[in-house]
Automatic annotation (TrEMBL):
It catalyses: alpha-D-glucose 6-phosphate = beta-D-fructose 6-phosphate. It is an enzyme of class 5 (isomerase). This is Glucose-6-phosphate isomerase. NCBIfam families: PRK14096.1 (NF010696). One of its GO terms (cellular component) is cytosol. PROSITE patterns: P_GLUCOSE_ISOMERASE_2, P_GLUCOSE_ISOMERASE_3. It holds the Pfam family PGI. Its EC number is 5.3.1.9. Belongs to the GPI family. The lineage of its organism: Eukaryota, Viridiplantae, Streptophyta, Embryophyta, Tracheophyta. GO terms for molecular function: carbohydrate derivative binding; glucose-6-phosphate isomerase activity; monosaccharide binding. Pathway: Carbohydrate degradation; glycolysis; D-glyceraldehyde 3-phosphate and glycerone phosphate from D-glucose: step 2/4. One of its GO terms (biological process) is gluconeogenesis. Keywords: Gluconeogenesis, Glycolysis, Isomerase.
Length: 633
């Protein structure tokens, strides 16, 4: 077996570094506000080629006027507005109601040129333009549901081949043709390891579409929390032997995913199992994960494409997706319309722009009234916030864009935070997701005369929508007939496109995530500092380190340590935080050193000789016995 630790030790550095655009001077926040806030010129150009034209007409007067006028309350007028704006996709059985968002006709007309520019930008994106300029990448998740749209035959073949391979593999696993070495002879569980877009999509879809008795149960490791990982492995118990482990990472270099993999591989070793016989990698070709899987001979490898972002990768290899792809493709078709009223994604973008003043001034609260759609809000949180939360626009202006997204599910939320939504701080708009079919046919019964359990759920949704609107809280309602692979695919595609259009409206790159890199880099620095702290403490213990990193067995080290202590005239010296910081040549990092010590002490890897963590100045620390080998990790 190839040395995994060797391969994996360079994992973190493999993530592509995203660049942040040019040097900019400070820009006053209020100068960026869209027309409602001031009459200053509108700073978000829609697309480069039209930005000059638009900047002349950038006072969105309708927005200001209509907002001052308040929301329509006359029931007859509201009903007319409802019917007038109702969008229906007949074949998909999907409706979009935007009547409870208060945009005016003037606002819609003023936004029209911006929408036309956004449609054009989306069209170019679908044709293979470099829509992610910072990373010089095409953005092709739309091709995944219709390979014919891909800009060249090579990509078309790649997409079709991958889809066929995924479906064949899934069939072979379910039928037992591909099986684990265990005596059960069949995979019974899936353990999916990934984070962000490499977890949220599969989690959402698995939850939304889970049958009552799935052929394989699925669990997720989506963090580097050791206790969380242990819990998942413990829950598998002896079924680890019949677990298919799917490691998903587009870059193949995300540290949390790498750690999840290493932890799971350790569990396999301890159970006397051969991980390679049960591991699957979904990643970019030639990534470190891909190479690891290839060299170690894992069961299967499937590609993730360079031109598909993690958060829009739900339709790439990973689940049985043909029906989802059909739903997504039908929605893609509908959302290519350049007529605003006929394009549900554009209608959503319009509502978002109106409700948040085009600057994210209000949060998007997502309330699916269906348990199986619980994770839709978390899924949208990443899709929207990672795509729209940007510091700079495409012209390099500092804009600090974004829309905050949160939510849980109805009517559960009614017993949690709806109180604040109705009466408290008015900093949000709501999106209700309604599912018309309560439960499969033949299972319904009346809890009380004329009323089923599902009627209650329906009543709660409608009641909340009305009660919020009565208090000037705006809402959108998306309605689907049922939660099926097709409708889930359509919902995902609807929001992917809405995000793309909205990004064009506010002139930002929706397809990169430079901000995430800062936290990752800082995390790497913390770990590097921890190694220096360990080295200093180790030196203070006068413990001579083994010369070769190959000598890593804990027993050996402990023997040497005890032997040394027994013969040592000058036992381990305990150090204050200041002394550690000085010896690390990092006096300015004393707070971080304190946090490192606190964490190591809580995990028995550093020992506190004097004081306690509540009084940092009183602390004196020396090294625990078990951590010398960490220096070589
Ligand atoms: O699939 P990967 O490369 O492991 O990345 C996981 C997640 O990390 C991010 O890159 C953010 O760091 C997301 O965009 C992505 O979904």
């Amino acid at each position: 077996m190839a040395s995994l630790s060797g391969l994996c030790s360079s994992f973190p550095s493999l993530k592509p570094n995203n660049r942040i655009g040019g040097e900019l001077g400070p820009v006053r926040k209020d100068s960026l506000a869209v027309s409602t806030r001031s009459n200053s010129s509108f700073k978000h150009s829609v697309a480069r080629e039209v930005s000059a034209d638009l900047s002349k007409t950038n006072d969105v007067a309708g927005l200001k006027q209509a907002k001052q006028g308040g929301l329509e309350k006359d029931p007859k007028a509201l009903w007319r507005r409802y019917v007038d704006w109702l969008y229906q996709h007949k074949e998909l059985g999907l409706y979009l109601d935007v009547s409870r968002i208060g945009f005016s006709d003037e606002f819609v007309s003023e936004m029209e040129p911006r929408f036309q520019a956004a449609f054009k930008a989306m069209e170019e994106l679908e044709r293979g333009a470099i829509a992610n300029p910072d990373e010089g990448r095409m953005v092709g998740h739309y091709w995944l549901r219709n390979a014919k749209l891909a800009p060249n035959p090579f990509l078309q073949v790649q997409i079709d081949k991958t889809l066929a391979a995924v479906c064949d593999f899934a069939d072979a696993v379910i039928s037992g043709k591909i099986k684990p070495p265990s005596p059960e002879g069949r995979f019974t569980q899936i353990l999916s390891v990934g984070i962000g877009g490499s977890a949220l999509g599969p989690q959402f879809v698995a939850e939304a579409l889970a049958p009552d008795n799935p052929p394989l149960k699925i669990r997720f490791i989506d963090n580097t929390d050791p206790a969380g990982i242990d819990h998942q492995v413990a829950q598998l118990g002896p079924e680890l032997a019949s677990t298919l482990v799917i490691v998903i990472s587009k870059s193949g270099g995300t540290p949390e995913t790498r750690n999840g993999l290493l932890e799971v591989q350790k569990a396999f070793r301890e159970a006397g199992l051969d991980f390679a016989k049960q591991g699957v990698a979904i990643t970019q070709e030639n990534s470190l994960l891909d190479n690891t899987a290839r060299i170690e001979g894992w069961v299967a490898r499937f590609p993730m494409f360079d031109w598909v972002g993690g958060r829009t990768s739900e339709m790439s290899a990973g689940v049985d997706i043909r029906e989802m792809l059909v739903g997504a493709s039908m929605m893609d078709e509908a959302t290519r319309s350049t007529v605003l009223r006929k394009n549900p994604a554009a209608l959503l973008a319009l509502c978002w722009y109106w409700a948040t003043d085009g600057i994210g001034s209000k949060d998007m609260v997502v309330l699916p009234y269906k348990d199986s759609l619980l994770l839709f809000s978390r899924y949208l949180q990443q899709l929207v916030m990672e795509s729209l939360g940007k510091e700079f626009d495409l012209d390099g202006n500092r804009v600090n864009q974004g829309i905050s997204v949160y939510g849980n599910k109805g009517s559960t939320d009614q017993h949690a935070y709806i109180q604040q939504l109705r009466e408290g701080v008015h900093n949000f708009f709501v999106t209700f997701i309604e599912v018309l079919r309560d439960r499969p046919p033949g299972h319904d019964w009346e809890l009380e005369p004329g009323v089923t359990c599902g009627d209650y759920l329906f009543g709660m949704l409608q009641g909340t929508r009305s009660a919020l609107y009565a208090n000037d809280r705006e809402s959108i309602t998306v309605t689907v007939q049922e939660v099926t692979p097709r409708s889930v695919g359509a919902l995902i595609a609807l929001y992917e496109r809405a995000v793309g259009i909205y990004a064009s409206l506010v002139n930002i790159n929706a397809y990169h995530q430079p901000g995430v890199e800062a936290g990752k880099k800082a995390a790497g620095e913390v770990l590097a500092l921890q190694k220096r702290v360990l080295a200093v403490l180790n030196e203070a213990s006068h413990f001579s380190l083994p010369s070769s990193p190959l000598i890593q067995r804990l027993d050996d080290l402990q023997m040497q340590f005890s032997h040394f202590n027994a013969h040592c005239e000058d036992p381990a010296e305990s150090l204050t935080l200041q002394e550690i910081a000085d010896r690390c040549h990092a006096p300015d990092d004393i707070e971080m050193i304190y946090k490192i010590i606190e964490h190591m002490a809580a995990n028995d890897r550093a020992l506190i000789a004097e004081g306690d963590c509540g009084s940092p100045y009183s602390l004196k620390v020396f090294l625990g016995e078990c951590n010398v080998d960490e220096l070589y990790a």
